[in-house]
Amino acid sequence: xxxxxxxxxxxxxxxxxxxxxxxxxxxxxxxxxxxxxxxxxxxxxxxxxxxxxxxxxxxxxxxxxxxxxxxxxxxxxxxxxxxxxxxxxxxxxxxxxxxxxxxxxxxxxxxxxxxxxxxxxxxxxxxxxxxxxxxxxxxxxxxxxxxxxxxxxxxxxxxxxxxxxxxxxxxxxxxxxxxxxxxxxxxxxxxxxxxxxxxxxxxxxxxxxxxxxxxxxxxxxxxxxxxxxxxxxxxxxxxxxxxxxxxxxxxxxxxxxxxxxxxxxxxxxxxxxxxxxxxxxxxxxxxxxxxxxxxxxxxxxxxxxxxxxxxxxxxxxxxxxxxxxxxxxxxxxxxxxxxxxxxxxxxxxxxxxxxxxxxxxxxxxxxxxxxxxxxxxxxxxxxxxxxxxxxxxxxxxx
Length: 398
Known about the structure:
It is found in: Membrane. By secondary structure, this protein is α+β, with helices and mostly antiparallel strands. The protein has helices spanning about 10-20, 30-35, 45-60, 65-90, 95-110, 115-130, 145-170, 175-185, 195-225, 225-240, 255, 260-275, 305-310, 350-365; strands at about 5-10, 25, 90, 280-285, 285-290, 290-295, 300-305, 365-370, 375-380, 385, 390-395.
């Protein structure tokens, strides 16, 4: 597959082994993915280089302090977006959600860049994404050809920003992840060069809006399709607002952590949809996995969907049922929506926070009319309706 002998790994035990054993496996992404996301991004680097860059970039999007810092920005933008969509009429719900989540990740990484830059980048990312899991056919008309062109445009924009920021260092205070990347030094005093910074930006800005945008859409659709689930989730959000201290404006992280049922709705959406269908690893040596030998140099494709649809772990796995999570904690390797091991998605907490804040406001004041529920689904690069979920958002209360 993708030009390499490959083993598709489908059981929870085997998947866990492949994604957690860094002594035996390294990233094994197809050349198309590495060329598009960047050889100096996380899809191309491993060992000490990966550890340092991950530590550097994960801290600003994880933990109580970091997430609290972004809450108001996320919430303000969610409120504005919902009000705007309710006035427009028919929208491509997924397209609008991706613009919203892209605005949020742009704020974290490139806080001072303007609206025009943001819109231009988001458009290019849409094209880039369609080539990430495509065959590397660099001929006009193919997804990979278009994606390479999009990457060139993204790199040009980021290069201009990096050059400008380097000229400003020391003259202005640190504001965002871009500044942190420019100033970073490892224990030997080595700094990141432009290629490394740009590849990290290409990767994070892509991953940082795609997953949260898609999962928010699917969670909203599942809520609309299951009135009993919607009623319970809505009641929980109304109770949070009702018991809020007088004078408090906006959500707090403490309130988000009280959203126990909504958290189950999100986890069930992540399980059913399995946003990232597969990750690629390569055996660094001959390695035994569950009684089978994966030879050195062979690719191991970790197939998350089979793990999430295993009937031995999840009764009636194709049924959307948030209540299955009541008092249930899956064993290690049985729930992998954000991967696992040293390459667990660094933005998983941020993604769940964004989805929770959106659903909090949607459930209280809005409803969605899905115009074409029978729209065929596309599965690459990610599961979505072919029409990007044509819908109308309506306000249902004052």
